[in-house]
Amino acid sequence: MTVAVVVALAALGLVFSLSGAVGIVRMPDLYCRIQCCTMTITMGALPALVALVVGAGPLSMYGSRALLVAVLLLVIGPVSSHALARAAYRTGVPTWRGAAVDQVKRRR
């Protein structure tokens, strides 16, 4: 039973990582690519780390480290993607021409 759960979680992480990698290649601008990259990190790595915890046990040497890395990814991933998108916007990286409206620019 444990092996089936580990395989299912690892496969789920692989599917999200693959879809995020395809999204990075296919998206038209930096801002959309940042979203795909963040999805790849959170939804691709977390199931793989949970699979390691389930397989090795949460109190093992690898399991406890995997839990720590998973918590750090949940905190650092969104913060870093927000900082990267904000820096790109402030330096004037253009958005995709098909983007709807720049709401931040309209407020200033």
Describe the fold and architecture.
The protein has 108 residues and is an all-alpha fold. It has 4 helices and no strands. It has one domain (2-94). It has helices at 2-26, 30-56, 61-90, 103-107. Helix 1 (2-26) packs antiparallel against helix 2 and helix 2 (30-56) packs antiparallel against helix 3. The mean pLDDT is 88.
Please state roughly what percent of the residues sit in beta strands, choosing from under 5%, 5-15%, 15-25%, 25-35%, 35-45% or over 45%: under 5%
Q: Name the shape in a single word.
A: elongated
Look at the helices and sheets and give the structural class. mainly alpha
What is the total domain count? 1
Supply Rg: 17 Å
Main pleated sheet: none
H and E order: HHHH
Total count of strands: 0
Summarize model confidence as the mean pLDDT: 88
User: How much helix is in the residues?
Assistant: over 70%
Low-confidence residue ranges:
none
N→C terminal distance? 57 Å
Question: What count of helical segments does DSSP give?
Answer: 4
How do the helices and strands line up, and which of them pair or pack?
Elements: H1 2-26, H2 30-56, H3 61-90, H4 103-107
Write a concise keyword list for the protein shown above.
108 residues, mainly alpha
Q: What's the gist of this structure?
A:
With 108 residues, the chain is mostly helical. The protein is 81% helix and 0% strand.
